[in-house]
Design brief:
By secondary structure, this protein is mainly alpha-helical. The protein contains six helices and four strands, in the order E-E-H-H-H-H-E-E-H-H. The protein has a single domain (about 20-145), classed as yst0336 like fold.
């Protein structure tokens, strides 16, 4: 994906950080976290559908990450290592034309037993959030974790 402006292509390595955009992003992330947690508190995770493609995402996640321990705390260093990024990039990019905002940043609970918090949340890409949370919600302990 390339960035463009009315003046032409934008080099992300040379782009300025715009404080107002960062603030708007932070507001959206907090709204998403708050909404998702409120839903988890009101309905069993096993009844939750995050997208129209939950089943496909789940099967793809299981095939690409067969040893992923859904009950464990996410190892952020492993997830964001060179090898981890490559595995996730391949997974994420397959949803480019299928899921809106598939590569937008969001927050992910680091452990299914925890509520969102400063030390219990990690920055992730939307498809990582969908894949991990969909898998968590269909796991046998889903209704007890939320």
């Amino acid at each position: 994906m390339s960035l463009t402006s009315p003046a032409g292509p934008i080099d992300p390595n040379q782009a300025d950080n715009f404080e107002e955009i960062e603030k708007q992003f932070a507001v959206k992330v907090v709204e998403h976290m708050t909404t998702y947690w409120a839903i988890l508190e009101k309905m069993p995770g096993s009844k939750l559908r995050l997208t129209k493609m939950d089943d496909e995402i789940l099967e793809h996640f299981k095939s690409e990450f067969p040893d992923y321990d859904l009950k464990a705390t996410i190892n952020e260093d492993e997830m964001k290592s060179k090898e981890g990024k490559e595995r996730w990039r391949n997974f994420i990019n397959s949803y480019e034309k299928k899921i809106e905002d598939y590569n937008f940043g969001t927050m992910l609970r680091s452990n299914p037993s925890f509520e969102y918090g400063e030390k219990e949340s990690i920055f992730a890409v939307r498809m990582q959030f969908y894949a991990i949370e969909i898998a968590r919600q269909v796991s046998p302990a889903a209704d007890n974790a939320s």
